[in-house]
UniProtKB/TrEMBL annotation:
Organism (species): Thermodesulfovibrio aggregans
Domain of life per record: Bacteria
This protein's name: Peptidase family M50
Keywords in alphabetical order: Hydrolase, Membrane, Protease, Transit peptide, Transmembrane, Transmembrane helix
Single GO cellular component term: membrane
Keyword Transmembrane helix tagged: yes
Similarity remark: Belongs to the peptidase M50B family.
Membrane topology classification: Multi-pass membrane protein
Peptidase M50 domain mapped to chain residues: 43-203
Localization of this protein: Membrane
One annotated GO biological process: proteolysis
An example molecular function term from Gene Ontology annotations: peptidase activity
Known cofactor(s): Zn(2+)
């Protein structure tokens, strides 16, 4: 039990920081009314479920392929969402392309499904409000998928109006955004694992082209992409070799790879945040 202590402590700490973030999103002044911290539970439960589902997807896929991995480490943070995410550590090599694509894709796929559900539920509780001015207004960008979900659940938004997202919908939006970032085919991100399993040595070029595109989006759309590009450069653009390179991946694994990159395309947001 002692070896799981750090995981439990970080998980509990992140529950509290996401509760804090969720309460602040509702306009609650926790310095005056700390007892109302619990009212942030819709956001906290939603975002924690999405992050936990993503990481446990990786964890169980690793177990299936006899690859040693830790339980998730959550990262509490004093931010608008109360966390910097979660991660697991791989403690043994990944042996085959099949294992690599399963481990790389399962996390984003589970996270995507949970985020999709949160978006649907949250959008049904969201409100359409008149917008008289966009000055000093914090706005979220839309991916292809999120735009379709808004239209499906709320219909056409009248001119001069916008959607005030419920905290559950905001958690779903964050989940989709995190999914798209993880599916970038760079280095050892989830998308990098998938790209390496599918294309082998071509990953070298795919990784560098993607980094260039991310940096370009940073120049023309959102400066945060420049920070992300620098972080990716620091983490490394290459992928370590696997021990057994099968001549051919099964059709089912190729479909998983294709679906993963389709999810990346429909969840990608060129300008995630606008002020």
């Amino acid at each position: 039990m002692r070896k799981y202590l750090i995981h439990v402590i970080l998980f509990i700490a992140t529950v509290f920081t996401t509760l804090f973030a969720g309460a602040l999103q509702q306009g609650i002044n926790l310095f005056k009314e700390p007892i109302r911290l619990w009212e942030g539970y819709p956001f906290s439960i939603s975002i924690m479920t999405i992050l936990l589902g993503h990481e446990m997807g990786h964890y169980f896929a690793s177990k299936v392929h006899n690859t040693k991995a830790t339980l998730p480490y959550f990262i509490p943070a004093p931010s608008i969402i109360g966390t910097f995410g979660a991660f697991i550590k791989m403690k043994s090599p990944i042996f085959t392309r099949k294992a690599l694509i399963d481990i790389g894709a399962t996390g984003p796929l589970v996270g995507f499904v949970l985020s999709f559900i949160a978006c649907i539920i949250g959008l049904k509780m969201s409100k359409i409000i008149p917008v008289t001015t966009q000055e000093d207004l914090f706005m979220l960008g839309d991916s292809i998928l999120f735009s379709l979900l808004v239209k499906f659940t709320l219909g056409n938004i009248p001119e001069g109006h916008d959607v005030l997202l419920h905290s559950v919908a905001f958690a779903g939006w964050i989940g989709l955004f995190v999914t798209s970032m993880n599916l970038l085919p760079v280095g050892q991100l989830d998308g990098g694992h998938i790209a390496y399993a599918l294309f082998g040595r071509w990953h070298f070029y795919i990784s560098r082209i993607t980094l260039f595109v991310v940096a370009a989006f940073g120049v023309f759309y959102w400066y945060g992409w420049l920070v992300w590009a620098l972080l990716l450069l620091f983490l490394g653009l290459d992928h370590p070799p696997i021990l057994l390179w099968e001549n051919r991946l099964s059709s089912s694994r190729q479909i998983v790879g294709a679906v993963s990159f389709l999810i990346f395309i429909i969840t990608f947001v060129p300008a995630p945040f606008r002020f």
